[in-house]
Amino acid sequence: MCDLKRTLDASGHCVLEMPSGTGKTVSLLALIISYQQFHPTKRKLIYCSRTVPEIEKALSELKRLMAYRIKVAQEDGDREQTLKEQAYSGLGLTSRKNLCLHPEVSKEKKGRVVDARCRDMTNSGVIERAKVDPDHNPTCSFHDELGLLEPGNLIPQGIHTLADVIDYGRKKGLCPYFTVRRMVRYIMPFVDIIIYSFHYLLDPKVAEQVSKEMSKDAIVVFDEAHNIDNVCIESLSIDLTRPMLDSAARSVTRLGDKIEECVLLSIKQKDASKLQDEYAKLVEGLQEAEDAVPIEDDVFMPNPVLPEDLLKEAIPGNIRKAEHFVAFLKRFVEYLKTRMRVLHVVAETPLSFLQHLKDITYIERRPLRFCTERLQSLVRTLELNRLDEIAALQKVASFATLVATYEKGFLLILEPFETEGATIPNPIFHLTCLDPSIAIRPVFERFSSVVITSGTISPLDMYPKMLQFTPVVQESYPMTLTRNCFLPLVITRGSDQVAISSRFEVRNDPAVVRNFGSILIEYSKIVPDGLVGFFPSYLYMESIVAAWNDMGILNEVWKNKLIFVETPDANETSIALENYRRACDNGRGAVLLAVARGKVSEGIDFDHNYGRAVIMFGIPYQYTESRILKARLEYLRDAYRIREAEFLGFDAMRNAAQCVGRALRGKTDWGLMVFADKRFARADKRSKLPRWINQYITDAASNLSTDMALVMSKLFMRTISQNPNENQTGISLWTLENVQAHQAKMKAVAAEATVQRPAAAPQQGDEMDTDVDMDMGTDDDDYGDGGIPDEVMAAADLAAGPGTLVHAQ
Amino acid sequence: MNAASKNVVICQGPGSLKNDAGTQTGTITLTPKKLIFAPSKQGDPNITISCSRICGLFASKAGQSGPGKLRVHHQKEGQPEEKVLLSFNNPQDVENFKTRLSEIAAQNKEKKAAQEAAAAAPAASTSEPQGPGASSLRIATAQRPPPTRNELRKSILMRDAELARLHADLVMNGHITEAEFWEGREHLVLAEAASESQRRGKPSVIVDPRPVRDESGNAVMKLTPAMIEELFDEFPVLRKAYDENVPKPLSDAEFWKRYLQSKLASRNRASARGAASEHTVKDDPVFDKYLEKEDDDIEPRRQLDMHVPKTVDLYATAEDHPETGNTQDVTMQAGKQRQALPLIRRFNEHSERVLNAALGDQEHPAKRRRIDSEVAGESSDGIPLQVNDQLRFLDIRSSDDAMATDGPEEANPNALLPDMVRSLDSWATDMSKISMERKSVEEAVLKMTSNIKSRLDVRIRRDELPHELLAEMTSLQTATSEFLRQFWSAIEPPPPEQGILSASSPEQRQARAEKMVGYLGKTQEKVNVIVQKARSAGVDGNKVIQAFHHTLSSVNTALQAHKTRRS
């Protein structure tokens, strides 16, 4: 808490690791909101989370926190404060697909189609035309309704979860998506907190549209940020395949036709065509063209390049004319297609790619860089509908822009075959970003305080190194528990003493498969309700599920529990998950098999009965034969001095920890964490686990066979399932007296320190002064890092039940 | 003349009947309403089976030597199936009975199936026309009316022999009333009601007929009717095939034989190898029609329309931001193992089906129970568990409750524990420095051995008591404790939460207490009688007196208490 406050005061960045399920989200929110409410400047909070479920959870926690604050303010009889609290508003933002209410559009399966159809009905051109000819220009009533309202008054003050906004929209006939977008854009002064996913800030394509208006002094929190480097890299990487290029070529032809049509039309009507207007504008310069865009609803196609890398100059002459540009695109696509015909792997830097491109097609770097801009402008001019149909072309344009903009930190890899053994070519042209710091740099530069936090972010120094920033504070907090509510066990061998491992050489060994299977069988017998098993990869899970079935292992499991398995389809998996939860609620009990780094491992909680035990089958290493990974490792070694093995181990362990951490979501919760691989027994692996897990792995539990682990598990379950003394104070939940006592102690220590090191005194004094008058909740912990204010504790307790709050000792 | 002859007799013949009780010879008669067996031995009661209860018929093979035999299965509503074996002296009779009875059995099956189908109608797809042989095996998903209190009590007594004996001793003999007996045992009834109200779900194991080798080394697959039913549920297309092909052009047996050898079966097998070995399977013109495309695309073939709450909605996340980044490496691309996908889908669907069989189709997720009390203060009833060793469990709980009501200071084990741990931590004694006085050690050991010896003596001596005497003593003992229990529960105010079940007024309770005092007053006499008996049997009467010492003293306490209450 006070570390966080120090960061905010110092306007710096910090990395915090807080054990999962300890009320991380709510304590962060509680402090920052108090901070916001106290300081008249009202810094905004941008809260980023990974997944929609997590966003929704954060919103509902926030909602209850604010309800509590309002209640307290009312009880205090402080009217001014009450009004202030009531005026505090927060919203969550997600894609059109998730928010759409339009009867037809919302039925579309693909988000991209929803986006395109929505744009077709809501862009300003259509709306203008609809005024004249409503029959042929359908618009969306939900969006139209919004236009009638005064921006800034679209939705009442307060906190709204995504579900709330949708309900409100349905009731009032308003479009939820644009409600949120406009609230955020026009009246950011009135929205105090916005919660959305990482991509909205990191992916330049989205950030350009969404996050441009955010003020510079906003506080940015990246929650569940253990994978933030991957998000950064993803947002700047692009893949091209042959079908994509074919589709792009078709789109280019269509564009050409459309232009011709347009030219003919203008000849017939004998007035200046739209294209000529556009040309004139482009001659004047790009910026003016940008300014011509009136409302954000019209943004068609964002630029993949980061803002500061955008060239502030006019589009080069040779692609200003629409016909020229189309010919240019055609040539580029043809060039890429030719490259795809190569039957051996090629890896090259952007510079060498550009050189080759120039040699063959005379395409220069500069026009290539403006590819996206130019396409965007053309599409707008032609008033094209159904943008989803030219998605491939957009991708090619983004590819061109990226490859021409960045020299360092990127690599182009052409893989003609999908796997080593494949004979039919299925070429993929990867443009891969190797340096996560490129995407996040603008965030660090723009916003003064960035908080990166997660339950599993060990080792802490890895993140500043990879993301190239200097944190003011980096800290890992241990967990104080009234009872040891989780039991990590490392199973290294089966009951027959055969070592188990997901190492590539042995993973398909029948003895290993059987031993993994018997772990599942035995645990399905003794664990009540839900049991989750994670595998290192989809490939392994799918093959092992088939093997287990043929070995009759799953038949044994069926006798005890139902079985659900993660599938490639997200929707299907959601349904399996929902059914899994039903089975757990019902008492029938179920096993869920999923993949670490997969869809389920991100953002789905297996709290309480939904996950009494999590088994990690093997260590979730990445596929080291992957060329992209190899390139990335090389880059990390050369640029940041991070050794390959170190990074791989770190990456595997953060994912393993993330998986098992899903089971523990609060102080009344309990669960078993089983690491089934002999390599987990090694100290170098375990040291990469977060401290809060590692400190509970006893020596006895670090090298077990299946039968021994079962005995320990049974014992653990017998003791833990007793009635918890939930609101016990003094250990992890502190009363005001505890906090004051602790402070007194810390003060005494500080006084001593002051005597010894007089230099340190002024700074501490300052800190104290700033804190004295802070409003409820945050005024009492500055020295050391012990106390969490009682009110906040109570709020946390009310909010999520995860009262086992963190405090460093 | 037989009583049954007054009614219309469909057929009749001499034979014998064998049931659980034994074999009897006599006359077997079938009337439109009943199957009657009249034993030839005079005085034995007729055995009648109502025709509406007959649910199955099995006949011995025709042409076998010896008397023809029929096995009749009959079942009362909500009770386990029973069976009788009928043997006929006259082969002619066998055929007659067989045709008639099989008609009746088939009718009954249809009726039952119709009832169940009506009840299970909301479960949609399963209520399509069913093949014969399948209907009787439907899992009853119909909600039965909740059992009455008497039924519950009965089933408790059926399961607990000891309680049943006590019940027989006291209630049947009119010492105490039924209501009195059950007062204070409400938890048993509640638990029974809870377990009754729980619907039994389907077994979750996936049906997967696998060949087994018989003695001659041939691979044999066995299909039971239950398995067939499961197969029908699992693969609607198979039911369709059955409906369309049986009895024409294929007979039932032929159908299954060909199915098991067909591509359809190998594809339906819960095995990833099934698909791999498909090319080795012969083509089958009948079944290949029903082959569908393998469900191994990334997107499932099945229409998905279940409502999923936002907190588990993975799809929303996938749609939350534009697709970016490089494709995953080979190992992380889901669905690469094509042959595993249909299998995985089958697992998910099967689990869902089992779940729906127990819970009904999806209930609204908002109604579901949440443990982590997202809304504080809103508690739910939870799911009553069926715990085998109830008494122990209840004891623990009540002692926990007692602790909770005590002052938190003294009785909170969690608070005490750290203290104890602390005191143990500081506890350090050097064992080598301990020296004991010889005399005291010897004394202690002596005491211990004598204690053990006396206990052993007691155990040896106890065996001397004759069996009948012991039984009598036990019965007196249990009866007296029951009287005591009744007495104290009549005197004590009733526990609040059981008020509904024990709705006895203070007057009634007073009367009951009086009655119990009457019984208890006689305890001394009864003990004396037993002592007399013991003496006459040559056993030391003191033992009996000793054995009853504690019982008598508690009886006396009770009587004393009664006296003081009255005065």
UniProtKB/TrEMBL annotation, chain A:
InterPro entries: ATP-dep_Helicase_C (IPR006555), DinG/Rad3-like (IPR045028), DNA/RNA_helicase_DEAH_CS (IPR002464), HBB (IPR010643), Helic_SF1/SF2_ATP-bd_DinG/Rad3 (IPR014013), Helicase-like_DEXD_c2 (IPR006554), P-loop_NTPase (IPR027417), RAD3-like_helicase_DEAD (IPR010614). Belongs to the helicase family. RAD3/XPD subfamily. CDD domains: SF2_C_XPD. Its EC number is 5.6.2.3. It is found in: Nucleus. GO terms for cellular component: nucleotide-excision repair factor 3 complex. Residues 1-279 form the Helicase ATP-binding domain. This is DNA 5'-3' helicase. Its cofactor is [4Fe-4S] cluster. One of its GO terms (molecular function) is ATP binding. It catalyses: ATP + H2O = ADP + phosphate + H(+). GO terms for biological process: nucleotide-excision repair; positive regulation of mitotic recombination; transcription by RNA polymerase II. Pfam families: DEAD_2 (PF06733), HBB (PF06777), Helicase_C_2 (PF13307). NCBIfam families: rad3. It is an enzyme of class 5 (isomerase). Signal peptide: none annotated. Its main location: nucleus. Keywords: 4Fe-4S, ATP-binding, DNA damage, DNA repair, DNA-binding, Helicase, Hydrolase, Iron, Iron-sulfur, Isomerase, Metal-binding, Nucleotide-binding, Nucleus, Transcription, Transcription regulation.
Automatic annotation (TrEMBL), chain B:
It comes from the Eukaryota. Residues 63-84, 107-151 are annotated as: Disordered. Keywords: Nucleus, Repeat, Transcription, Transcription regulation. One of its GO terms (cellular component) is transcription factor TFIIH core complex. It is found in: Nucleus. InterPro entries: BSD_dom, BSD_dom_sf, Tfb1/GTF2H1, TFIIH_BTF_p62_N. Residues 75-84 have a biased composition (Basic and acidic residues). Residues 115-124 have a biased composition (Low complexity). It holds the Pfam family BSD. Residues 227-267 form the BSD domain. One of its GO terms (biological process) is DNA-templated transcription. PROSITE patterns: BSD. Belongs to the TFB1 family. This is BSD domain-containing protein. It comes from Tulasnella calospora MUT 4182.
